[in-house]
Please model this.
Amino acid sequence: MSLDYAKTMLKIWVKNFKKLETRDLTAKAKGQLVNRYIQEPYADGYAFYEITKETKTKVHIKVISGLGDNWVIPYWGNDAVIDKSYAMNSIQRRDSLKELFS
Model:
């Protein structure tokens, strides 16, 4: 991998992450889960999933590509339906850590 390629990829990842963060913060301000994201530890990084739909006890999630290594969790695949409480706990941990280190 050339240095120029690595720099280009890093710029793309940063741009994509900023877009994700903007959608996440907008959804947070509105008090909604749709468009918030969860990050699931995998291998040497994270797989990122955005919440696309919310029901009373479940959320639908879809993998987000264009961030880092584009990990996909094998047991979730590209999209899945997971417990809403799991997603909320994941988001709460991320928000708490962000607040702690800001």
About this structure: The mean pLDDT is 95. DSSP finds two helices and four strands in the chain.
